Amino acid sequence: MDNLKTNKILAAFLLAGLLAMGGGKIAEILVPHEELAENAYPIEIKEVAGIGDSNASSNKGPEPILALLASADVQAGMKLAKKCTACHEFSADGKNKTGPMLWNIVDASMGMKDGFQYSDALTKMEGQWDYSSLNAFLYKPKAYIKGTKMNFAGLKKPTDRANMIAYLRSLAETPVALPSQEQIDAEKSEIN
Ligand code: HEC
Q: For the domain with range 59-191, which CATH number is right: 3.40.350.10, 3.20.20.30, 3.40.640.10, 1.10.760.10?
Protein backbone atom coordinates (compact mmCIF):
# COMPACT_ATOMS: atom_id res chain seq x y z
CA MET A 1 0.00 0.00 0.00
CA ASP A 2 1.44 3.41 -0.87
CA ASN A 3 1.88 6.09 1.72
CA LEU A 4 -0.78 8.40 0.43
CA LYS A 5 -3.38 5.69 0.76
CA THR A 6 -2.23 4.77 4.25
CA ASN A 7 -2.43 8.42 5.24
CA LYS A 8 -5.91 8.73 3.90
CA ILE A 9 -7.04 5.70 5.85
CA LEU A 10 -5.38 7.03 9.02
CA ALA A 11 -7.06 10.36 8.47
CA ALA A 12 -10.39 8.65 8.10
CA PHE A 13 -9.87 6.78 11.37
CA LEU A 14 -8.83 9.98 13.12
CA LEU A 15 -11.85 11.81 11.85
CA ALA A 16 -14.09 8.99 12.91
CA GLY A 17 -12.49 9.05 16.37
CA LEU A 18 -12.93 12.79 16.65
CA LEU A 19 -16.52 12.54 15.61
CA ALA A 20 -17.13 9.84 18.16
CA MET A 21 -15.45 11.87 20.94
CA GLY A 22 -16.98 15.14 19.94
CA GLY A 23 -20.22 13.27 20.01
CA GLY A 24 -23.43 15.21 19.98
CA LYS A 25 -21.87 18.60 19.34
CA ILE A 26 -20.31 17.83 15.99
CA ALA A 27 -23.23 15.71 14.97
CA GLU A 28 -25.53 18.57 15.80
CA ILE A 29 -23.56 20.97 13.65
CA LEU A 30 -23.35 18.57 10.74
CA VAL A 31 -26.85 17.16 10.91
CA PRO A 32 -29.44 19.47 12.42
CA HIS A 33 -32.08 17.75 14.50
CA GLU A 34 -34.97 18.49 12.25
CA GLU A 35 -33.34 16.86 9.31
CA LEU A 36 -32.68 13.76 11.37
CA ALA A 37 -36.30 13.46 12.29
CA GLU A 38 -37.27 13.78 8.68
CA ASN A 39 -34.94 11.03 7.60
CA ALA A 40 -35.79 8.55 10.28
CA TYR A 41 -39.50 8.23 9.65
CA PRO A 42 -39.74 7.45 5.93
CA ILE A 43 -37.18 4.67 6.36
CA GLU A 44 -39.25 3.09 9.09
CA ILE A 45 -42.37 3.22 6.98
CA LYS A 46 -40.60 1.73 4.00
CA GLU A 47 -39.40 -1.24 6.02
CA VAL A 48 -42.85 -1.96 7.35
CA ALA A 49 -44.34 -1.72 3.87
CA GLY A 50 -41.64 -4.05 2.55
CA ILE A 51 -42.59 -6.89 4.85
CA GLY A 52 -46.23 -6.95 3.93
CA ASP A 53 -47.78 -5.49 0.88
CA SER A 54 -48.19 -1.85 0.00
CA ASN A 55 -51.97 -1.96 0.02
CA ALA A 56 -53.74 -1.20 3.24
CA SER A 57 -55.66 -4.46 3.44
CA SER A 58 -52.52 -6.60 3.49
CA ASN A 59 -52.68 -7.37 7.17
CA LYS A 60 -56.30 -8.36 7.16
CA GLY A 61 -55.86 -11.49 5.10
CA PRO A 62 -57.72 -12.44 1.99
CA GLU A 63 -61.02 -10.83 1.09
CA PRO A 64 -63.95 -13.19 0.61
CA ILE A 65 -64.27 -14.50 -2.93
CA LEU A 66 -67.14 -16.98 -2.90
CA ALA A 67 -69.53 -14.35 -4.21
CA LEU A 68 -67.16 -13.66 -7.11
CA LEU A 69 -66.91 -17.27 -8.24
CA ALA A 70 -70.19 -17.51 -10.12
CA SER A 71 -69.24 -14.63 -12.38
CA ALA A 72 -65.50 -15.39 -12.46
CA ASP A 73 -63.67 -15.49 -15.79
CA VAL A 74 -62.21 -18.94 -16.42
CA GLN A 75 -60.26 -17.70 -19.46
CA ALA A 76 -58.64 -14.98 -17.37
CA GLY A 77 -57.81 -17.65 -14.79
CA MET A 78 -56.18 -19.74 -17.49
CA LYS A 79 -53.98 -16.78 -18.45
CA LEU A 80 -53.09 -16.19 -14.82
CA ALA A 81 -52.04 -19.81 -14.56
CA LYS A 82 -48.93 -18.84 -16.51
CA LYS A 83 -47.67 -17.70 -13.13
CA CYS A 84 -47.91 -21.30 -11.98
CA THR A 85 -46.74 -23.31 -14.97
CA ALA A 86 -43.07 -23.01 -14.09
CA CYS A 87 -43.89 -25.42 -11.29
CA HIS A 88 -47.29 -26.99 -12.00
CA GLU A 89 -48.96 -28.91 -14.81
CA PHE A 90 -52.73 -28.66 -15.10
CA SER A 91 -53.86 -31.31 -17.56
CA ALA A 92 -55.50 -34.62 -16.64
CA ASP A 93 -52.31 -36.46 -17.58
CA GLY A 94 -50.09 -33.75 -16.08
CA LYS A 95 -46.96 -34.73 -14.21
CA ASN A 96 -45.56 -33.54 -10.93
CA LYS A 97 -42.80 -30.99 -11.46
CA THR A 98 -41.42 -28.63 -8.83
CA GLY A 99 -45.00 -28.65 -7.58
CA PRO A 100 -47.66 -31.35 -7.76
CA MET A 101 -49.95 -31.67 -10.79
CA LEU A 102 -53.13 -29.70 -10.26
CA TRP A 103 -55.83 -31.52 -12.26
CA ASN A 104 -58.78 -32.23 -10.00
CA ILE A 105 -57.46 -30.16 -7.11
CA VAL A 106 -60.68 -28.44 -6.00
CA ASP A 107 -62.13 -30.43 -3.08
CA ALA A 108 -59.18 -32.85 -3.21
CA SER A 109 -57.44 -33.71 0.06
CA MET A 110 -54.44 -31.53 0.79
CA GLY A 111 -51.05 -32.97 0.03
CA MET A 112 -52.29 -36.17 -1.60
CA LYS A 113 -51.15 -36.10 -5.23
CA ASP A 114 -49.52 -39.43 -6.04
CA GLY A 115 -45.77 -39.51 -6.07
CA PHE A 116 -45.15 -35.92 -4.97
CA GLN A 117 -42.79 -35.21 -2.09
CA TYR A 118 -44.65 -32.61 -0.07
CA SER A 119 -43.08 -30.50 2.65
CA ASP A 120 -43.71 -31.65 6.22
CA ALA A 121 -45.83 -28.55 6.66
CA LEU A 122 -48.22 -29.45 3.86
CA THR A 123 -48.18 -33.16 4.70
CA LYS A 124 -49.42 -32.26 8.19
CA MET A 125 -52.37 -30.30 6.83
CA GLU A 126 -55.67 -32.06 7.13
CA GLY A 127 -58.64 -31.10 5.10
CA GLN A 128 -59.57 -30.28 1.58
CA TRP A 129 -58.74 -27.69 -1.00
CA ASP A 130 -62.18 -26.15 -0.96
CA TYR A 131 -62.82 -22.64 -2.23
CA SER A 132 -62.00 -21.02 1.09
CA SER A 133 -58.74 -22.81 1.77
CA LEU A 134 -57.63 -22.17 -1.83
CA ASN A 135 -58.52 -18.50 -1.37
CA ALA A 136 -56.41 -18.27 1.77
CA PHE A 137 -53.49 -20.30 0.36
CA LEU A 138 -53.30 -18.47 -2.96
CA TYR A 139 -53.51 -15.13 -1.19
CA LYS A 140 -50.24 -15.80 0.62
CA PRO A 141 -49.03 -19.41 0.55
CA LYS A 142 -46.36 -19.02 3.23
CA ALA A 143 -48.75 -17.37 5.64
CA TYR A 144 -51.46 -20.01 5.23
CA ILE A 145 -49.02 -22.93 5.49
CA LYS A 146 -45.92 -21.91 7.40
CA GLY A 147 -43.04 -23.95 6.03
CA THR A 148 -44.59 -24.76 2.65
CA LYS A 149 -42.06 -25.16 -0.11
CA MET A 150 -44.27 -23.40 -2.62
CA ASN A 151 -42.22 -20.31 -3.39
CA PHE A 152 -44.91 -18.04 -4.68
CA ALA A 153 -45.76 -14.63 -3.28
CA GLY A 154 -49.49 -14.97 -3.85
CA LEU A 155 -52.34 -13.43 -5.77
CA LYS A 156 -53.32 -10.26 -3.95
CA LYS A 157 -56.31 -9.22 -6.06
CA PRO A 158 -59.59 -10.92 -5.10
CA THR A 159 -60.72 -11.07 -8.76
CA ASP A 160 -57.44 -12.77 -9.69
CA ARG A 161 -57.95 -15.40 -7.02
CA ALA A 162 -61.57 -15.91 -8.05
CA ASN A 163 -60.59 -16.30 -11.72
CA MET A 164 -57.73 -18.62 -10.81
CA ILE A 165 -59.93 -20.79 -8.61
CA ALA A 166 -62.68 -20.85 -11.25
CA TYR A 167 -60.07 -22.14 -13.68
CA LEU A 168 -58.87 -24.77 -11.18
CA ARG A 169 -62.52 -25.81 -10.72
CA SER A 170 -62.86 -26.34 -14.46
CA LEU A 171 -59.96 -28.80 -14.40
CA ALA A 172 -62.02 -31.85 -13.53
CA GLU A 173 -64.31 -34.25 -15.30
CA THR A 174 -67.15 -33.09 -13.08
CA PRO A 175 -66.42 -29.67 -11.61
CA VAL A 176 -67.65 -29.33 -8.02
CA ALA A 177 -70.72 -27.19 -7.36
CA LEU A 178 -70.44 -23.45 -7.09
CA PRO A 179 -70.98 -22.09 -3.58
CA SER A 180 -74.55 -21.69 -2.40
CA GLN A 181 -75.95 -18.37 -1.22
CA GLU A 182 -75.75 -19.60 2.40
CA GLN A 183 -72.07 -20.40 2.00
CA ILE A 184 -71.45 -16.99 0.47
CA ASP A 185 -73.20 -15.26 3.37
CA ALA A 186 -71.41 -17.41 5.94
CA GLU A 187 -68.02 -16.58 4.42
CA LYS A 188 -68.77 -12.88 4.48
CA SER A 189 -69.67 -12.88 8.14
CA GLU A 190 -66.65 -15.03 8.97
CA ILE A 191 -64.02 -12.92 7.23
CA ASN A 192 -65.39 -9.43 7.81
C1 HEC B 1 -42.01 -21.74 -7.73
C2 HEC B 1 -42.84 -22.90 -7.90
C3 HEC B 1 -44.35 -22.75 -7.72
C4 HEC B 1 -45.18 -21.80 -8.26
C5 HEC B 1 -44.83 -20.63 -9.14
C6 HEC B 1 -46.51 -22.17 -7.83
N7 HEC B 1 -46.46 -23.28 -7.04
FE8 HEC B 1 -48.05 -24.23 -6.21
N9 HEC B 1 -46.81 -25.54 -5.29
C10 HEC B 1 -45.43 -25.57 -5.44
C11 HEC B 1 -44.88 -26.58 -4.56
C12 HEC B 1 -43.40 -26.92 -4.41
C13 HEC B 1 -45.97 -27.14 -3.87
C14 HEC B 1 -45.90 -28.18 -2.76
C15 HEC B 1 -45.77 -27.38 -1.48
C16 HEC B 1 -45.39 -28.14 -0.24
O17 HEC B 1 -45.22 -29.37 -0.30
O18 HEC B 1 -45.28 -27.47 0.80
C19 HEC B 1 -47.17 -26.48 -4.36
C20 HEC B 1 -48.46 -26.77 -3.94
C21 HEC B 1 -49.62 -26.22 -4.46
C22 HEC B 1 -50.96 -26.60 -4.10
C23 HEC B 1 -51.34 -27.69 -3.12
C24 HEC B 1 -51.42 -29.01 -3.87
C25 HEC B 1 -51.74 -30.23 -3.05
O26 HEC B 1 -51.73 -31.32 -3.63
O27 HEC B 1 -51.97 -30.15 -1.84
C28 HEC B 1 -51.79 -25.82 -4.85
C29 HEC B 1 -53.31 -25.86 -4.82
C30 HEC B 1 -50.97 -24.95 -5.64
N31 HEC B 1 -49.65 -25.22 -5.39
C32 HEC B 1 -51.46 -24.01 -6.53
C33 HEC B 1 -50.67 -23.10 -7.24
C34 HEC B 1 -51.20 -22.10 -8.13
C35 HEC B 1 -52.66 -21.93 -8.47
C36 HEC B 1 -50.13 -21.37 -8.57
C37 HEC B 1 -50.12 -20.16 -9.48
C38 HEC B 1 -51.01 -19.07 -9.13
C39 HEC B 1 -48.93 -21.94 -7.98
N40 HEC B 1 -49.31 -22.99 -7.17
C41 HEC B 1 -47.65 -21.49 -8.20
C42 HEC B 1 -44.69 -24.76 -6.28
C43 HEC B 1 -45.17 -23.67 -6.96
A: 1.10.760.10
